[in-house]
């Protein structure tokens, strides 16, 4: 396939559903070989099949990004299958909300594991795989750019009621992004963050029905009460929530050659929302 990412190898966590799936399909259409990840086999394989139906290349690595050794396995399998990767998108995640006076250590630790520790481990594994190649390219006088995009949230930028755990981790992820951009710039690795506003996924579905999913053995609520969803819509200057495809396009911008001189930034993709 031809496109702006032709010949690139992109690794996307949490890409069996929602925004991650939209990202995988977007990158595949632009010519990238895609390494798909999801907690569950069925959605991961479905994304792979859709990419292959487009004429693209993809494999699935099923499992939780919080599992011990997952990061190294994820990167190593990508290298064995396609070669040295070019793009890492730390997209996997969920929310487990509670007001501070009701919040448990378990809820806080769960958000730390998936939104901060897992990106740290994945970024480290990615960099360890890439740096020898980057050094060889530099010695040959070549300037080859690679991309890390850490997915954040407006909750990390502005805070959000009921999300002290989630907001804290996403805010810390901004510090990780800025630090890595300084450490990795000499290796031509751009590190940026995209903070999503309200994007239409199963986690943000407007519903007054109580719905839950099980993640890493924890039963967590999904969906937003209709009244709250309507309130968000009134707060968004563009007047509505975003689609997964619009969210994916915001991430894609940081993975194109046009972003080669942009690093250490956090961009909000939220229709102008400032919480």
Polypeptide structure, described:
This protein has 275 residues and is α/β, with parallel strands linked by helices. The protein has one domain: Rossmann fold, CATH 3.40.50.720. The protein contains eight helices and nine strands. The strands form two sheets. It has a seven-stranded parallel sheet, sandwiched between helices. A two-stranded antiparallel sheet has the order 7-8.
As a percent range, the share of helical residues equals: 40-55%
Structural class: alpha/beta
The CATH class assignment is Alpha Beta
Which architecture name does CATH use?
Answer: 3-Layer(aba) Sandwich
Short description:
The chain has 275 residues and is of the alpha/beta class. The protein has one domain: NAD(P)-binding Rossmann-like Domain (Rossmann fold, 3-Layer(aba) Sandwich), CATH 3.40.50.720.
Topology:
Layout: E1 9-12, H1 18-29, E2 33-38, H2 41-53, E3 58-62, H3 70-81, E4 87-90, H4 105-139, E5 146-153, H5 154-158, H6 164-184, E6 189-196, E7 211-215, E8 218-222, H7 226-235, H8 244-253, E9 266-269
Parallel strand pairs: 1-2, 1-4, 2-3, 4-5, 5-6, 6-9
Antiparallel strand pairs: 7-8
Helix pairs in contact: 1-8, 3-4, 4-6
């Amino acid at each position: 396939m031809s496109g702006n990412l032709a010949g690139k190898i992109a690794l996307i966590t949490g890409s069996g559903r929602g925004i991650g799936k939209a990202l995988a399909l977007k990158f595949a259409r632009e010519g990238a070989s895609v390494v798909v990840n999801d907690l569950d086999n069925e959605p991961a394989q479905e994304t792979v099949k859709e990419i292959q139906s487009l004429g693209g290349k993809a494999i699935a690595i099923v499992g939780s990004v919080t599992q011990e050794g997952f990061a190294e396995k994820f990167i190593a399998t990508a290298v064995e299958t396609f070669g040295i990767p070019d793009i890492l998108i730390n997209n996997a995640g969920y929310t487990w909300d509670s007001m501070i006076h009701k919040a448990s250590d378990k809820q806080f630790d769960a958000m730390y594991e998936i939104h901060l520790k897992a990106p740290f481990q994945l970024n480290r594994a990615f960099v360890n795989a890439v740096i020898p190649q980057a050094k060889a390219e530099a010695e040959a006088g070549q300037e080859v750019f690679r991309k890390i995009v850490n997915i954040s949230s407006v909750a990390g930028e502005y805070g959000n009621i009921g999300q002290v755990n989630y907001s804290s981790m996403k805010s810390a992820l901004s510090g990780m992004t800025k630090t890595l951009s300084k450490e990795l710039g000499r290796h031509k690795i751009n590190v940026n963050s995209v903070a999503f506003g309200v994007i239409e996924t199963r986690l943000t579905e407007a519903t007054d029905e109580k719905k839950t999913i099980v993640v890493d053995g924890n039963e967590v609520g999904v969906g937003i009460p209709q009244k709250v969803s309507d309130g968000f819509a009134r707060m968004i200057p563009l007047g509505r929530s975003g689609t997964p495809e619009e969210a994916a396009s915001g991430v894609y911008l940081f993975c194109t050659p046009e972003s080669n001189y942009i690093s250490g930034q956090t961009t909000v993709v939220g229709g102008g929302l400032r919480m």
